[in-house]
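Both lines are retained for reference:
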Amino acid sequence: MVERNDPARAGVKAGRVVGVATAALSVAALLGVQDTYYEQMTVLLGFVGADAVPLAAVFWGNVALTAAARYTLAYVVGSLVGVVYDWLGRPSLVVLGILVSVVGAVDGAFAALDTRSAVFGVAYLLAWLCYVPVFARVFDESADERSGPVRLS
């Protein structure tokens, strides 16, 4: 449940949706380089004398931490986007779309550089654009504080 008239809380909920999408994209990117990861970690662990460390545990631990970090990042940034939307005086959703597009473009650019794939960059941008319809569904500017929360089920 989310308070209908609080853009920051609506931003948190929309950020969670983006977080799930970007976490899935980060897992997909890591699965695509799993063989290279194993090769590089074999050399690195051999260099530091930790040959007994199971590579699968290191890889899947990295995948889990990366997914959690992506989710958390989108959660926090989603909240901040809601706060900025409120700070701007709650303009139209077009302005929100532009704001989210900038965030998504920056995130997508970093993802494209990291994965060396423009496809992942575009996918991250599209994941961020999912923010706008979720925000529009959750946020109700005309609701007062006595309206109660909206159920998302």
